[in-house]
Design goal:
The complex is a heterotrimer of chains A (303), B (375) and C (313). Chain A is mainly alpha-helical and 303 residues long. In chain A, 67% of the residues lie in helices and 0% in strands. In chain A, helix 2 crosses helix 3 (89-125), helix 3 runs parallel beside helix 6 and helix 8 (205-241) runs antiparallel to helix 10 (269-295). Chain C is mainly α and 313 residues long. Chain C is built from 14 helices and two strands. The mean pLDDT of chain C is 87. Classes of the chains: A mainly alpha (303), B alpha/beta (375), C mainly alpha (313). The B-C interface holds B 2, 68, 70, 94-95, 97-103, 106-107, 109-111, 114-120, 128-129, 132-133, 164, 166-167, 177, 180-181, 183-184 and C 209-211, 213-222, 224, 228-229, 232-233, 306-309, 312.
Chain lengths: 303, 375, 313
């Protein structure tokens, strides 16, 4: 019970007009955990972006290197060991990060564009538009999205998915949550003085949305987007696990984990390293998202 | 099970029911130590009512919760002595207090809209303490709950026990809260602003009900309020609190006839009176109570006091005895004494009383400075 | 009771939207002829069957009419015939559906049983090391995808300690708790973190309420205050989340079933996807949507049990 606000509430419990609530505005530190998360994500992004230019990262190949040792644990040459085909696991994990991040970011962008627009429109215009959009969003949000994504991939490409199909299918996961959070944020800003002021000055709706509301809505969306990326990376892994994600020489984390699973007892490193990297990445994304969201100004019903 | 403190436990069965000596309750906050209660002493005899009066933030609610031991443990520092029936209870653990709460002491909370559990039937909220503390079986407890509801003036009590709080009006809910507090027959009842949240018409009914119950059961009662009007004619004794300290204490009669503390006077002036024409502007006390984390030097009321002299800003007045026994106050220039009259006259001559707000500015700078520095 | 009716309508809309989406996609993606072609190909049937297949698909009707006919049959339990397996789809569905629902239910039960005490302790001891420990554990659990969790649990409990099977029987019975333990736990642990965090937040808020102070002033035990007074008013978000996450859990079963070789709906749909068994895909989506709708409806009804104020609205 060392929560400062809690104590002052007791101290001022009979104070309706009590002292200024200065605690709220006191700046919180980001904390070491946040910076570790940032550092880790920076590392992952940098490695996967620079992968083709890095001497210690092999590019993915479709053919096994027969000369290489098979299923060897971590060594100085192969930091994460090698797999059955003699591929360097570290390179595979880095290349997997590329796929995972490309999918994660694309899905998040689609979510931002589609979900964000829906949320803005619903929150700004309200009424019937809002009710229709909210109903659709609720449906999408609640329905087993992964099942729908599976069905979509199955129907569109039947077991031989391409990158755009995977991205499209996984967008089912990102549109609805982002629409909901944007709507909540828009609702709370649409009633603020600066928006009313802009309205009385005769500003057009479009201008108000773009100039006044959008800049305020972006921060909570961005904080939430981190969580969405984490969600998408996990979902992509699930698809890969089922053999329904991108089929190309480039590995994905899910594919690596599912390949390594067979050898978990004797050659644990194969599944362990990709799992660990995936865990840390999701942890970092979730943690950063949590921190940003808790510092964000907007929550549903909070204003 | 419920261990009851009986008269035989106590060292001096003839002594006062409650004796609080130099009670301090400090909150350790990031802003520093908030002295919510700072050296309060009081005694309460069986069957008597003590009114504790003060503005918001004067520490009166904290005082009552602190005596009852209802404050959280961490970051709260409580020192001093609390004797109940002669037994020191300030060192009691939470589980030891559990046998005190209910059968010995009970509390009526301020807002009946929030102090009842919204998802539990009224009957159950009364019977659960009966069953726990008094070992009653279900039927007995139910029967007693119905008669308790009847005694606090709730119509159709047998039907009401099966209802939920949201089905009752505010006044009715406060009656239920009172019934819950009375259930185990406490000897000491705390009322924390028990009527503040209610309509004016209902307020008097509830206060009369408390009065009647108190006399019938020979309970002692501590009535905490910001309104001197509430305790007038109801409390035997009145303690006026300001900034965590008792600044004046007397029998009700003495206090109203010959108050000494300018703060008490100011509180009295802020009560609307019948003889006032409607729309008369009420005198309000200028300024705010001081920041208890960073109290100013001297008398804590001085910055808002129209009697204040330079001495008041330097020297904290001690609690002194008045002309009649049991009358105590803290003031260098007491109301109704030559010293006080002279001080007031001097301030008026210099036009200083009107400037109470200026003084208040200084206080608010002092209060916001440490917190502002942190942000 | 008005809200029940409104909810019922909403949920039916969910059901129709999801099934219509998948149904029409089947035909729109490749075109009607391609669908018929692939069915004939799978069947290795001759062109003489084409008319028969086309009639079975109501190919001459416009899409909405086709959907209504399909839905009308589906309501009676007739989902058509699997061209791949040569059996009625409804026959293929029964056992897998039971298994998958059991998996979801067990996972939810485990998750709630673990999350409620953890959430209560974390809230009661808010901001102490106990709370920080529990909350950190929750953040960690949230970052473990269920398939990674499953691999890890199988490695530990099945390969190393050999206490629970890592692969289930092909005719898994729904009360075979031993076989269900690892799959359910894999699904549950992520949910534990979600539920625990929700309950903790709500419980902290509830513990600040006056009626909790009042319960304390009645001299009740801490246990009774936490469980009898604080838990119920704090559990509305938790219940909502249990309902909402049923969708996510059903999604999760697909992959968990793969890992444990469990013959459930997930296994069925994955096979159907690889083999272009469109009627099975449609049926699985429809059945899952229906199960999902039903569970959410029950959750809504449960609100009224939890909070008497909702009943009188």
């Amino acid at each position: 019970m060392s929560d400062p606000t809690q104590l002052t509430e007791i101290a001022d419990s009979d104070a309706e007009s009590g002292a200024d609530d200065n605690e709220r505005s006191a700046p919180k530190k980001w904390g070491i955990g946040f910076w570790i998360a940032v550092a880790w994500l920076t590392l992952v992004v940098a490695l996967s972006a620079l992968a083709p230019y890095l001497p210690f990262v092999d590019s993915p190949s479709e053919f096994p290197d027969l000369a290489a040792p098979s299923l060897e644990g971590p060594t100085a040459d192969h930091w994460f060991g090698v797999n059955q085909n003699g591929d360097d696991l570290f390179s595979q994990v880095v290349n997997g990060a590329r796929t995972s991040l490309i999918i994660g970011l694309s899905v998040m962008t689609l979510g931002f564009l589609i979900g964000g627009s829906l949320g803005l429109i619903a929150g700004f215009f309200r009424g019937k538009v809002d009710r229709v959009i909210s109903a659709v969003v609720d449906i999408l949000l609640a329905f087993p999205a992964l099942v729908l994504a599976l069905a979509l991939i199955g129907i569109l490409s039947g077991g031989d998915a391409t990158l755009p199909v995977v991205i499209l299918a996984l967008s089912l996961l990102s549109v609805a949550p982002l629409a909901r959070i944007t709507r909540a944020a828009t609702l709370s800003f649409a009633e603020r003085e600066f928006v009313t002021a802009a309205r009385t000055l005769g500003a057009k709706n479009g201008r108000i949305i773009l100039r006044e509301i959008l800049p305020n809505v972006i921060p909570p969306m961005a904080a939430f987007a981190l969580t969405v990326i984490a969600l998408v990376i996990v979902a992509e892994g699930a698809l890969a696990f089922l053999g329904l994600s991108v089929s190309s020489p480039a590995p994905t984390w899910g594919k690596l984990i599912s390949e390594g699973r067979a050898e978990i007892e004797d050659h644990g490193h194969w599944a362990l390293f990709p799992s660990g990297v995936m865990f840390l990445t999701i942890l970092a994304l979730n943690y950063m998202g949590d921190v940003l969201q808790s510092r964000g100004t907007v929550r549903e019903g909070a204003l | 099970m419920a261990r009851r403190i009986t008269a035989t436990d106590s060292a001096d069965p003839g002594g006062p029911l409650l004796e609080v000596t130099d009670l301090k309750t400090h909150f350790l906050t990031p802003r520093g130590r908030v002295r919510a209660v700072d050296g309060v002493s009081l005694t309460l005899e069986r069957g008597r009512t003590l009114g504790i009066v003060g503005e918001s933030g004067s520490g009166k609610t904290v005082l009552s919760r602190s005596i009852m031991g209802l404050l959280p443990k961490s970051n709260v520092e409580r020192t001093g002595s609390i004797k109940y029936e002669g037994t020191e209870i300030s060192g009691y653990s939470q589980s030891e207090m559990q046998s005190v709460w209910g059968p010995e002491m009970a509390m009526i909370f301020q807002d009946p809209m929030t102090s009842l559990n919204p998802v539990m039937k009224i009957g159950r909220q009364i019977t659960e303490s009966l069953r726990y503390h008094l070992d009653m079986d279900k039927a007995e407890a139910h029967e007693l709950a119905v008669s308790l509801l009847k005694s606090v003036g709730i119509p159709e009590p047998a039907k009401r026990v099966k209802e939920y709080p949201h089905q009752l009006s505010g006044g009715m809910r406060q009656r239920v809260v009172i019934a819950i507090a009375l259930a185990c027959g406490p000897k000491l009842l705390f009322g924390d602003e028990p009527t503040t949240a209610l309509d004016v018409t209902v307020q008097a009914q509830i206060l009369n009900l408390l009065d009647a119950q108190q006399r019938e059961r020979f309970m002692a009662m501590i009535l905490v309020t910001h309104d001197l009007g509430v305790v007038a004619g109801r409390a035997h004794d009145i303690a006026v609190m300001y900034a965590g300290k008792i600044v004046e204490k007397a029998s009700a009669k003495t206090l109203f006839s010959s108050m000494r503390m300018p703060y008490t006077e100011a509180l009295l002036e802020s009560i609307p009176k019948l003889e006032h024409k409607s729309h008369t502007r009420l005198a309000s006390i200028p300024g705010r109570p001081p920041d208890l984390a960073n109290p100013p030097r001297g008398c804590l009321f001085a910055p808002r006091c129209r009697y204040a002299q330079p001495q008041c800003l330097e020297e904290e007045p001690p609690l002194v005895e008045g002309d009649t026994p049991d009358h105590q106050y803290r003031c260098h220039f007491p109301v109704g004494t030559p010293a006080g009259d002279e001080a007031l006259a001097r301030n008026k001559a210099e036009g200083r009383t009107i400037h109470a707000d200026d003084v208040e500015v200084d206080v608010s700078v002092a209060t916001s400075a440490p917190a502002g520095g942190a942000s | 009771m008005k809200f029940v009716a409104v909810r019922a309508v909403q949920l039916v809309v969910v059901l129709v939207t999801a099934t219509f989406f998948v149904f029409s996609l089947t035909f729109l993606a490749d075109g009607d002829d391609a669908v018929v072609d692939s069915i004939l190909q799978i069947e290795a049937g001759s062109e003489t069957r084409r008319a028969e297949v086309e009639e079975g698909l109501n190919i001459d009707d416009p899409l909405p009419v086709r959907y209504v006919k399909w839905a009308g049959d589906a309501v009676t339990g007739d989902f058509g015939r699997s061209y791949v397996l040569g059996r009625d789809v409804s026959d293929l569905l029964v056992e897998p559906l039971k298994r998958t629902l059991a998996l979801v239910v067990y996972a939810q039960i485990i998750a709630i049983l673990l999350a409620v005490p953890a959430g209560i302790i974390a809230a009661y001891r808010a901001n102490t090391w106990i709370d920080r420990g529990v909350s950190t554990g929750a953040i960690g659990l949230l970052a473990v995808p269920n398939y990674v969790m499953a691999i890890f649990l199988v490695f530990l409990f099945a390969s190393t300690w050999k206490v629970f099977p890592g692969i289930v029987d092909s005719d898994l019975q729904i009360f075979d708790f031993k076989s269900y333990f690892l799959p359910s736990l894999s699904l549950a642990l992520g949910q534990v973190a979600v539920y625990m965090r929700l309950l903790r937040t709500d419980m902290i808020a509830t513990l600040q309420e006056d009626f909790i102070g009042m319960a304390k002033a009645k001299g009740l035990t801490t246990r009774s205050i936490l469980f009898r007074h604080a838990l119920r008013p704090s559990s509305l978000s938790l219940v909502t989340s249990v309902g909402l996450s049923t969708g996510a859990l059903i999604g999760g079963t697909v992959i968990i079933e793969q890992i444990f070789a469990m013959p459930g709906m997930g296994t069925l749909v994955v096979r159907a996807i690889f083999q272009d068994d469109i009627f099975v895909i449609q049926a699985v989506v429809a059945v899952i949507a229906f199960a999902f709708v039903l569970i959410n409806f029950l959750v809504d009804l449960f609100y009224a049990v939890l909070d008497p104020r909702i009943r009188s609205v």
